[in-house]
Design a protein that fits this description.
The chain contains eight helices and eight strands, in the order ααβαβαββαβααβαββ. Helix 3 links the parallel strand 1 and strand 2. The chain is 43% helix and 22% strand. Pfam families: Methyltransf_25.
């Protein structure tokens, strides 16, 4: 049974920046399900995409793995020989709990859980790379550099799966999708106080891009194909194929 997210349920005098600390780890499964529309669909499909694109004797990377949901989904679907999943996160609390989750499931596909900054990880011999709601937490100037590094480390025909919160250039559409997301959170039991305080905590650490910006970067870097494959309100997921 997962613990309920009540981190922002009481008034906070001074709201600091959101961090993936022990408190967040304890409630993360509940938080993500109640906050990110379509999250379960994305996790399931990441496994299906991995099954389609993974190659024998290659590496699979889950960059910003948190508790390992995408890693486990891919691990369940990978049937090729000689594959290894490398799951990376810079939160010690997340890494510790992720290892417990990974070790709870037996599989022929080994997983290495690494505590590190994803910007400093070597990407090599990769057939699948996942950035599941991760890129948006990097500074804008670091995003292009990381994506370029991923492209260089992917095999020809390899896939990057990128899930993100999106911003929209049309202000009417942008505000409507934000409102619908807040309605989604209300429907999942979050109060107005929780919605407001969480938004204040996260706005300085999460700076989303538009879909057009993502596509422009993919094209500049040299990916051969890229598109949005899932969207619900202002959240979604894209693929980019080398």
């Amino acid at each position: 049974m997962t613990n309920k997210d009540t981190i922002f349920s009481a008034p906070i005098d001074k709201i600091g920046d959101f961090t993936f600390d022990e408190r967040v780890v304890e409630v993360f499964p509940d938080m993500i399900q109640r906050s990110v529309p379509g999250y379960s669909n994305i996790i399931s499909a990441i496994g299906m995409l991995a099954e389609r694109f993974v190659k024998p004797n290659s590496h699979v990377y889950d960059l910003g793995c948190s508790l390992g949901a995408a890693t486990l989904s891919m691990r369940r679907h990978i049937n090729q020989e000689g594959c290894k999943i490398i799951a990376v996160d810079n939160s010690p609390a997340m890494v510790e709990r992720c290892k417990l989750h990974i070790n709870s499931y037996r599989s022929d596909t080994p997983v290495e859980v690494v505590e590190a900054d994803i910007r400093e990880i070597n990407i090599e011999n990769a057939s699948v790379v996942v950035l599941n709601f991760t890129l948006q937490f990097l500074s804008p100037e670091d995003r292009f550099t990381l994506l370029k590094k991923i492209h260089a480390g992917l095999r020809p025909g390899g896939i990057l799966i990128l899930s993100e919160k999106f911003v929209f250039e049309d202000s009417t559409s942008h505000e409507l999708l934000i409102d619908l997301h807040h309605d989604f959170k209300r429907a999942n039991g979050y109060s107005e106080l929780e919605i407001s305080q969480k938004r204040s905590a996260i706005e300085n650490v999460m700076r989303p891009d538009s879909i057009a910006m993502h596509k422009e970067r993919f094209e500049q870097i040299g990916f051969s194909s890229f598109e949005v494959w899932f969207q619900c309100f202002n959240f979604g997921s894209m693929f980019a194929i080398k």
